[in-house]
């Protein structure tokens, strides 16, 4: 613990006031999209909505993270969810129901 405290003191001596965080817009990183793919801004909206659904609590000790991966052919997506306290079983079951419904719509258009 003493070593950690000493490290903080040294950092504060080197830079007593941290720089303000910079802002990087998503547009700075947008790849050129082809017609077979949905745009990154849509992917971001999907991830934001799914992350909202997985935010089961406002408890800061129960943080969730979500990742959406597209396969190489861009014909499918994988959604990964992690929580620092483990993903509750009922949460996974609800998500699987949602995923099946979305797959059905993608296949049938209904």
TrEMBL record:
It comes from the Eukaryota. This is Uncharacterized protein.
């Amino acid at each position: 613990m003493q070593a950690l405290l000493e490290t903080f003191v040294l950092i504060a001596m080197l830079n007593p006031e941290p720089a303000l965080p910079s802002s990087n817009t998503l547009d700075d990183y947008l790849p050129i999209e082809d017609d077979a793919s949905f745009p990154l801004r849509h992917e971001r909206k999907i991830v934001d909505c799914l992350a909202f659904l997985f935010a089961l609590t406002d408890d800061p000790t129960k943080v969730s993270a979500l990742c959406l991966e597209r396969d190489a052919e861009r014909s499918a997506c994988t959604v990964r969810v992690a929580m620092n306290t483990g993903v509750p079983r009922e949460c996974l079951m609800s998500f699987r129901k949602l995923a099946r419904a979305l797959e059905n719509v993608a296949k049938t258009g209904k």
